[in-house]
Amino acid sequence: MGYGREELAGLTTKFDAILDAYGKMDLRLARHLLKPGGTYASTLFIPPPYLSILITRLIHGKRLTSANMRRRPEDWQEMEELYAAGKLKPFIENTFSLEHAADAFDLAVNGKPRGKIIVNTP
Questions:
Q1: Which CATH number fits domain 5-88: 3.40.50.1980, 3.40.50.720, 3.40.50.12780, 3.40.1180.10?
Q2: Structural domain spans, the chain
């Protein structure tokens, strides 16, 4: 699924968890998209709207947290297991052959991709 702000804001589907790999999702939007008891995790440090984080937890029953996994190999292992089980599905924007890697790079830099860009190597 693509993840443009407008598309996300219009969703009626609620999620158990959101991993914001880019770290730029508005926290109000995250609260809107989460089920009660759900968790929003950002790969970036969530700066001190600590009061907002606490209120979200107490009133809305939803958890906002930072999820920097660089130092926790067990987190990467869990993500790999979830992917292998089909429970974690990345959104792939486009796939390119190695001969068209320059096009892939151009899309990544200038095209505002909504998902992952894959370059296949022989």
A1: 3.40.50.720
A2: 5-88, 90-122
Q: What is the pLDDT of residues 65-109, one digit of tens each?
A: 766 666 677 877 888 898 899 888 788 889 999 999 999 999 988
User: Strands 92-97 and 63-66: what pairing?
Assistant: unpaired
Q: What's the one-letter identity of residue 51?
A: L
What per-residue string of b and e applies to 87-113 under the rule 16 or more CB within 10 Å gives b? eeeeeebbebeeeeeeebeebeeeeeb
Q: Which residues pair with 63 in a beta bridge?
A: 39
How distant is the alpha carbon of residue 86 from its chain centre?
Answer: 16
